[in-house]
Backbone:
């Protein structure tokens, strides 16, 4: 929920909130679903939720099940799953926030059936129970003997003031997305909560270690088989450049798109912007591309870059030295993403067009990098060592 909308909603008394939301659900014929059930024959049983950003809750769950010792179920609020990523269990936000029956059933199921709960993005895993107070929710689960962990996904733990100070390209330097002064106290509270509860903590991308230095780098997961292809790279006269502005401010679209369009008009590249295409159709899009412009205002890389590397395509993005050092330490090879800023994107595209063999060789290392860090094996090892078996 946008911070401004969230502030307005919080002014409404909780009983009235419950009445409004429950009334909407009843009018739509929504019945609270029973809690997700794990395989009780497994030694460890994990519940992950409730945001599943970029389908990662589901991916981490599947990776853990490959161990043979874990049964994992992820869940997500329907409203957070607009791109329809795979998920084990869907529930509406209104049900989670306002249905006392659903909350009671989840509390009972967690205490009875689960050994571990991994909370995503500091978002209340038990919905509106205790008015969404995560400290009380964590204490309640821990009192039942459940081990609780936290994973930070991105803006939930990325403190605007820190990011702005560290990165001149930070998307917090303008108010196109969410004003930094509104987000700052929200993130600060999340970081305070993480420090106070003192549970195993993870971050999905390496750049977030700046804000959560005691966390473990978990890494995002993609399926390399889904993205692998044999399409030739950089063989057309015009380099085909693709950009998917899923979040234009984070990706820097407003700054890089004019440059790409100008080079398109010049005849150097063929520039294509991709919008509204489901994730299951993106492998064909990437296979037909030479270069993918990823994100230029975060200083980090995520799922989109990993999918592109797995496709054997060239990724251009701004990635900080801190991130590069961290991932190289784990992968034992350099991150195959040429450092590119908003100021140098034109220079990089011209260089790619001129030195095609060099960039073919670089792109060819992408699938191996993904295999080492982002195919699920690394993430499973981190979670087993620092959370499940700890």
Residues:
């Amino acid at each position: 929920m946008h911070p401004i909308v969230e502030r307005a909603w919080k002014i409404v008394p909780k009983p009235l909130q419950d009445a409004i939301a429950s009334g909407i659900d009843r009018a739509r014929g929504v019945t609270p679903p029973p809690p997700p059930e794990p395989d009780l024959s497994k030694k460890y049983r994990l519940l992950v939720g409730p945001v599943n950003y970029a389908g990662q809750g589901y991916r981490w769950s599947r990776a853990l099940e490959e161990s043979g010792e874990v049964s994992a179920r992820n869940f997500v609020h329907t409203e957070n799953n607009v791109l329809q990523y795979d998920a084990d269990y869907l529930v509406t936000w209104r049900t989670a926030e306002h249905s006392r029956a659903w909350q009671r059933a989840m509390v009972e199921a967690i205490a009875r059936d689960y050994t571990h709960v991994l909370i995503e993005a500091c978002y209340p895993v038990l919905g509106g129970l205790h008015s969404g107070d995560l400290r009380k929710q964590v204490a309640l689960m821990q009192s039942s003997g459940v081990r609780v962990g936290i994973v930070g996904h991105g803006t939930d733990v990325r403190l605007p003031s820190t990011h702005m100070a560290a990165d001149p390209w930070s998307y917090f330097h303008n108010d196109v997305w969410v004003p930094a002064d509104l987000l700052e106290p929200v993130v600060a509270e999340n970081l305070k909560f993480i420090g106070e509860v003192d549970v195993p903590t993870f971050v999905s991308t390496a750049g977030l270690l700046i804000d959560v230095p005691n966390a473990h780098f978990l890494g995002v997961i993609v399926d390399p088989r889904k993205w692998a292809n044999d399409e030739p790279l950089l063989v057309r006269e015009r380099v085909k450049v693709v950009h998917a502005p899923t979040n234009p401010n984070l990706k820097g679209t407003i700054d890089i798109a004019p440059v790409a369009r100008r080079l398109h008009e010049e005849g150097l590249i063929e520039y294509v912007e991709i919008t509204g295409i489901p994730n299951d159709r993106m492998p064909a899009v990437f296979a037909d591309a030479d270069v993918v412009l990823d994100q230029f205002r975060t200083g980090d890389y995520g799922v989109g870059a990993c999918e592109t590397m797995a496709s054997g395509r060239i990724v251009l993005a701004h990635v900080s030295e801190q991130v590069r050092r961290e991932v190289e330490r784990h992968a034992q090879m350099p991150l195959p993403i040429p450092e590119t800023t908003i100021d140098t994107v034109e220079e990089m595209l011209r260089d790619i067009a001129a030195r095609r063999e060099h960039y073919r060789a670089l792109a060819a290392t992408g699938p191996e990098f993904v295999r080492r860090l982002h195919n699920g094996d690394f993430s499973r090892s981190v979670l087993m060592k620092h959370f499940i078996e700890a």
About this structure: The first strand starts at residue 44 and ends at 49. The domain at 224-373 is CATH 3.40.50.2000 (Rossmann fold).
